Amino acid sequence: MPADPFKVFLYYLHYKYGRPFTSRKSLERWQNKKIKKHLKYVAKYSPLYHGMKQLDQYPVADKPFMMKNFSKLNTVGICREEAEAFAIKAEKNRDFAPKLKGVTVGLSSGTSGNRGIFLVSDHEKNQWAGYILAKFLPNNLFTSCSIAFFMRADSNLYEAVRSRQIRFHFFDLYQDLGTHRHRLEEICPQILVGQPSLLLMLAGEKATGRLAIFPQIVISIAEVLEKEDEARLKKAFGLKVIHQVYQCTEGCLATTCPYGTLHLNEDIVSIEREYLDGHRFIPIVTDFCRKAQPVIRYRLNDILIERKKPCPCKSPFLALEKIEGREDDIFQFQSPDGTIKQVFPDFIRRCFLFACAQETHLGDYRAVQDTDGKIIIHAHLTESGKKQVQKEFQYLAQDQGFLLPEITFQPYTWEPGKKMKRVERKLPLKLPEGGSTNEVQSKSTIPQS
For a disulfide at 420, which of 100, 197, 251, 280, Cβ 3.0-4.6 Å? Predict the structure, then answer.
């Protein structure tokens, strides 16, 4: 069954013109009521969570927990084996239209490489479509709009936004960019959606005159959008704001406001914050809209950074400075005294930012801490550029107090269809005695229902 246009329209109106929250306190009171109502449903229909009506009764979950308990956790009676087989078949056939028992099934490899499966009911699909349209449609539902969407896999979830006025076009990331050029120009999309690595390639094509498209809105998804990449996209497409959607298997968690600030979508999710320092935190997500596959107290391994200054839009939704990356991509080094020093991905990126001020040909890069602890830099660099990057890492080691391992350089490559990670740690996690480092403070903000 396709999306219901009337219901999508109602959700669009609700999220576009609904009564705004007057304060943070009013938002939290409203959230608590929504969570309480949602948990009553989940406690009744989810075998795994049967009888649990208080949020603090629910265990903190992660992807392995969700996948291990998939069959008992969902409320629509779909077992993991049939869902996984169904999703893999769709991937192989590149046919994402069919549904399983009337439910959309999606497969996500995830940036961390752990496979995830998600279920979305038709009701949730209508709600999601209305929400996304309310957030990003440049005009209204009755104005013609063409959307070009680059993804690894299509889904009838995304087809929910299609209507007579809204034309949705899926572009397969696994196909060569050259095959998309003519179709893109023919469509001339008002909205262009894709991961930063792909958007940068399109920006390069446009800058050299090989691609003539003029999107009004560019939306970055699936990967961390670096500040320097954001600036490149703004310049290439002539836009003041590059929008972002922070969405994963567990839901649509954050979107940008008209001022370009990323805000948590706290009108559909509640976020507990497990702080790593004064402004970095790991989000623990409770989605009070999803019923087919409840997402309750789900701990992501993303590192989010709170925005220090208030956003001019004055939204009570928590504003983010940026998504820093994955918790498991924090680099780890030996200190002179033998203890472990953790260095957040942002500090690694700064080495390239500072090096770029001296080396104009830095371009794209990746920094990987290999399994032996050594650092591999993937970039097209001159000899002076390599020396400058080396120097910035030496400054970082001195400033942070760790022993700098060997650094080697390789050409930069990007594999289409694979998520780009500027900073990646392959080194197995090491913890000192006691199970944690003195760099991480763990505490949570937990809304009470």
Answer: 197
